[in-house]
Amino acid sequence: MNNDFGDFGSDSSKKGSRGIIKPAGNPSKSVRVWCDGCYDMVHFGHANQLRQAKQFGDYLIVGVHTDEEIEMHKGPPVFSEQERYRMIRGIKWVDEVVEGAPYVTTVETLNKYNCDFCVHGDDITLSADGTDTYADVKKCGRYRECMRTSGISTTDLVGRMLLLTKTHHSFADDIAKHEERARFLSTKNFMFALYPHVLLFKDRKAVSPWTRVSRFLPSTRTIMQFAEGRSPREHDVIVYVSGSFDLFHIGHLCFLEEARKLGDYLIVGIHNDQVVNAYKGGNHPIMTLHERVLSVLAYKPVSEVVIGAPYIVTEELIKRFNIQIVAKGIRLPDHQMPGEPDPFRLPREKNMLRLIDSGSNMSADQIITRIIDHRNDYENRNRRKECREADVYEKIKNLNLDTLQTISI
């Protein structure tokens, strides 16, 4: 099925209600689905893979690898295992997280957690010795595939941070240009011109089709696929928060979880790229407005988002969404736009403002600092990863295979 974010791949099993794929011969059986991964610098591409995986069954279990395993097979992760465990637990399609899941997925692991099969994106994951990490479950017919989200990857985000440019920003007047840009996204010359950091990998023999940089093009359908929300009920206490929510991280999640506790329905206002750049400067935000919207929508505490929310909380905003509580964090300093009044003046005067201690000091700036401090490690990691994938891709093409098979380098 062709759409912006993809649906589940082909399978011989029968689909039950809600599109869930039921095992042939036993349509009443609850289907348990396994996913696993590093989930480092969790972004909406990871969340979308888990959303699609949940469509295959009733209960989604996600295994997350340890720092030690990732270091051995790929290189150093940006986030610690405890941070990654917490982030995956917060995604709304995830029912259970297995901490310290093995890097290579086996039938033994599926059996241990009573899972029918595992689901992975249509890219390849290789172990340190160059072997497909899903070879065992593929061989036994317990592997399903979903579409990888184009236009977003951890490699791309790291590149944006290292490059320190604003070419990724979305401007209010460039929406009409998206269609024209899309025609050039797959061409090497345009990709290199738009994202020079991909030249880090210019010494490769071939381009990996799985690790690459492209432009994410937003649409209402992609947002609807992530929203899956409900309208507020008549007596719901509606809470409003706002900010950039760039490089969505553990601090954001902790803040939103605390904000949700203040009421029944949490609305998150997300500032546009120009507003964020005005109060943060540099090449902020690292992620575009629509990328940040999808990242926020993926998490359990969030009921609704306001796309391109006003910097100042106004009377019109409060009435439009029937907001009873406005919340803001206290851990990090406020970002004040030059020459602008206090954005929370009105809710403060109305006694609607609540201050939240999220318990976390994490910020987008800290993430960028981690990347810059370990720049060589991450560049070398990404270069090795793409070169291994490119070698596998070349072998697949030479063998004229239609599907991925076990290939050792």
TrEMBL record:
Gene Ontology cellular component list: cytoplasm
Task: Give the GO terms filed under biological process for this record.
Answer: phosphatidylethanolamine biosynthetic process
Q: What keywords are assigned to this protein? A: Lipid biosynthesis, Lipid metabolism, Nucleotidyltransferase, Phospholipid biosynthesis, Phospholipid metabolism, Transferase
Instruction: Please indicate which superkingdom the organism of origin belongs to.
Output: Eukaryota
Low complexity: which segments have biased composition?
1-11
Disordered: annotated span:
1-24
Protein family membership: Belongs to the cytidylyltransferase family.
Query: So, what pathway does this thing act in?
Result: Phospholipid metabolism; phosphatidylethanolamine biosynthesis; phosphatidylethanolamine from ethanolamine: step 2/3; Lipid metabolism
Q: Which GO terms describe its molecular function?
A: ethanolamine-phosphate cytidylyltransferase activity
Q: Which InterPro entries match?
A: CCT, Cyt_trans-like, Ect1/PCYT2, Rossmann-like_a/b/a_fold
Q: What is this protein called?
A: ethanolamine-phosphate cytidylyltransferase
Q: Provide the E.C. number(s) assigned to this enzyme.
A: 2.7.7.14
Query: Residues in domain Cytidyltransferase-like?
Result: 34-158, 241-329
